[in-house]
Design a protein that fits this description.
ATP-binding, Isoleucyl-tRNA Synthetase, Domain 1, EC 6.1.1.19, 2 domains, mainly alpha, DALR_anticod-bd, 9 strands
């Protein structure tokens, strides 16, 4: 998997990349562009101008140029800037400036600054390598692959999975645990990066959720009932919801649209992660007391299948799959 695939990058453009040079040249506004010999406020960074001698372009200039391009030329209706929270004061000026220029109408177009905290090492200091260098994402992914394979082998999964299934599970756990650890924390807060916690199969981790998902999917396979058959049965088979745990699970599942709307409103992905964890835990409570498939104790053959409860299993798996898709996790059928 490449970094672009891992990050699900559609186009290689940053906040101020890809600006039309004509837009940069047109922004000759006092305080936006400065001659290179003029005073530059401490902390600002400069980039070479688009061929105009004696001028430098600063972050404020290029960000305004790209906002103009995305709104007026590309006709965007929602811009989301996902940037370190330390840059909030910069965008507190840039967004009102774009409004003052008449480039967008807040009732029609939305521009949001989504700040995030700092990733810390287990020493509670900014996450660095032992030599003090910035940690590369590619190195984290490689380390995640190594550790996830060790975890799977420690559980003896290499004895029951085919080489292809083991590799798929390894990738799912490695990439999923890193993504989920980042998204499951409130983005406004700093968090401690720990592979040991990420790869724990207990608690609110990707590993626990991915295992829970594969267990749920295995129930229908045990019953020898396909997803298509369950969907067809749902058209005419009622779900009685006689047991309290059936009711509890159902009420959690129907909250999914509400959670999605709330997540879209505040753009805090930990809200969706918390819900996903609640779904998995509630399903465990349900499955412990509500039998879906009954087997003969001697032969192991399936004796009866409760289609109503099997539909609850299918609905749970489908909701979890949708959450995984939004979060960028890749579940597997066997783990």
């Amino acid at each position: 998997m490449t970094l672009r695939q891992f990050l699900q990058v559609c186009a290689n453009r940053g906040a101020n990349r890809g600006a039309n040079p004509d837009n940069l040249i047109s922004l000759r506004i006092t305080g936006v562009r400065r001659r290179k010999e003029d005073h530059v406020h401490p902390g600002t960074k400069s980039t070479p101008d688009c061929g105009e001698v004696g001028w430098w372009v600063h972050y404020d200039t290029s960000d305004l140029a790209t906002i103009k391009q995305r709104l007026l030329e590309e006709k965007s209706d929602w811009l989301i800037y996902v940037v370190d929270s330390g840059q909030s004061s910069h965008f507190d000026l840039i967004i009102p400036a774009a409004l003052a220029m008449g480039w967008y109408e807040p009732s029609v177009t939305k521009i949001q600054f989504v700040g995030f905290g700092v990733v810390l090492g287990e020493d509670k200091k900014k996450f660095k390598t032992r030599s003090g260098d910035t940690v590369k994402l590619s190195d984290l992914l490689d380390e995640g692959l190594r550790r996830s394979l060790e975890t799977l082998k420690a559980k003896g999964r290499d004895k029951v999975l085919s080489p292809e299934e083991l590799e798929a599970a390894q990738n799912s756990v490695a990439y999923g645990c890193i993504k989920y650890a980042d998204l499951s924390h409130n983005r406004n807060n700093d968090y401690v990066f720990s592979f040991d916690k990420m790869l724990d199969d207990k608690g609110n981790t990707a590993v626990y959720l991915l295992y829970a998902y594969t267990r749920i999917r295995s129930i229908a396979r045990t019953a020898k009932v396909s997803s298509e058959k369950i969907r067809n049965a749902a058209k005419e088979t009622p779900v009685p919801l006689d047991h309290a745990k059936e009711w509890k699970l159902s009420k959690v599942l129907v909250r999914f649209p509400e959670v999605i709307l709330r997540t879209m409103d505040d753009l805090c992905m930990h809200t969706l992660c918390d819900y996903l964890y609640e779904v998995a835990n509630t399903f465990t409570e349900f499955y412990e007391v509500c039998y879906c498939v009954e087997k003969d104790k001697q032969t192991g053959e399936v004796v009866s299948v409760d289609m109503g409860r099997l539909m609850l299993c299918e609905a749970t798996a489908n909701v979890m799959a949708e959450c995984f898709d939004i979060l960028g996790l890749q579940p597997v059928q066997k783990m």
